[in-house]
């Protein structure tokens, strides 16, 4: 027969049941303090991410865009919102002409947005991408290598260049050995801004937010990898 040990604290040992002493023994307080201190140090030491590390683990997303009449800028703002929804993400949003070398090289991800001009990216966006070399000298060291890249576009008409615009932006990123991702749509987020569908609608804004969120999530994943 299995004998179970008696339940501790549930036995009556016939001890005298007087009032419980309220005063703690004198050495108890310093011992308790020392124990708490040791526990605190142990928790800090065992923490998987220290304060320094968590600052290091935050990712920076640069959203660079060109916009004359505001459509691409609205999409850029939604991309920013999506990226910011990922905890630990720092986002910088700038017009392509305002981007500095530091903005570019300190970022973990770059999302580029363009209006469609003659079925392709606008001249301003092309100049921005060309300036990665002419102004910032990304090549031959591939200074943008392994940063996350993505694109978004707005165009007046359906089937009139948004996908070409996004793909040519992504092609430039691939040439720089960046890690290209989509989101919102197959090649990025896009919006039709004229005709039956003027401006940016809620679905298009949601696509832009989805792109920003995906970019930030992928950048955080890559950033936290043990070897980069
Ligand atoms: C010079 C120029 C060329 C354009 N070419 C096209 C085009 O080929 N296909 C298209 O869908 N929209 C075209 N558009 C329309 C713009 O892409 C569209 O209005 C866009 O949303 C503008 O963006 P923004 O408001 O950010 O400036 C063109 C607009 C301009 C000014």
From TrEMBL:
Residue ranges of every copy of the Flavodoxin-like domain listed in the record: 61-216
Ranges annotated as spanning the membrane: 26-46
Keywords: Flavoprotein, FMN, Membrane, Oxidoreductase, Transmembrane, Transmembrane helix
Pfam family membership, one: FMN_red
Molecular function via GO: FMN binding; NAD(P)H dehydrogenase (quinone) activity
Top-level class of the enzyme under EC nomenclature: oxidoreductase
EC number, as in UniProt: 1.6.5.2
UniProt keyword Disulfide bond, yes or no: no
Tagged with keyword Protein transport: no
InterPro entries: Flavodoxin/NO_synth (IPR008254), Flavoprotein-like_sf (IPR029039), FMN_Rdtase-like_dom (IPR005025), ISF_SsuE-like (IPR051796)
Source taxon at top rank: Bacteria
Name of the protein in question: NAD(P)H:quinone oxidoreductase WrbA
Organism: Nitrospira lenta
Phylogenetic lineage: Bacteria, Pseudomonadati, Nitrospirota, Nitrospiria, Nitrospirales
